[in-house]
Specification:
63% helix, mainly alpha, 5 helices
């Protein structure tokens, strides 16, 4: 019974550190510190400064590059590429064939 209570308290410390880390842009560090150090990890996480906004942008770009490389997302140039003309320039699109009755 004591082990179960200890695990519940430990999980609460990890959750608290997760939310503190989320506010500071350091979710992974928050969870890792609390998982390894318990309440001391939560205190350390609370004392750490927030990440600069530029780091979040760099991380977002890195995540997008990894997703593109793995084939999950298309390359951004493919998403925003202008439409390619079909046929000769200035030509109207071909008319659909007429069905004979």
């Amino acid at each position: 019974m004591g082990l179960l209570i200890g695990l519940i308290i430990w999980a609460l410390f990890v959750a608290a550190s997760y939310f503190v880390g989320k506010q500071k842009g350091r979710v992974g560090a928050g969870v890792a510190l609390a998982a390894l150090l318990g309440v001391a990890g939560v205190i350390i996480m609370a004392c750490l400064p927030a990440k600069p906004a530029g780091d979040a942008e760099v991380q977002r770009r890195y995540d997008l590059q990894q997703a593109e490389a793995s084939g999950i997302l298309p390359h951004p140039d493919d998403l925003y590429a202008p439409p390619q003309p079909q046929g000769e320039p200035g030509a109207y699109p071909p008319e659909p064939p007429v069905r004979q009755l």
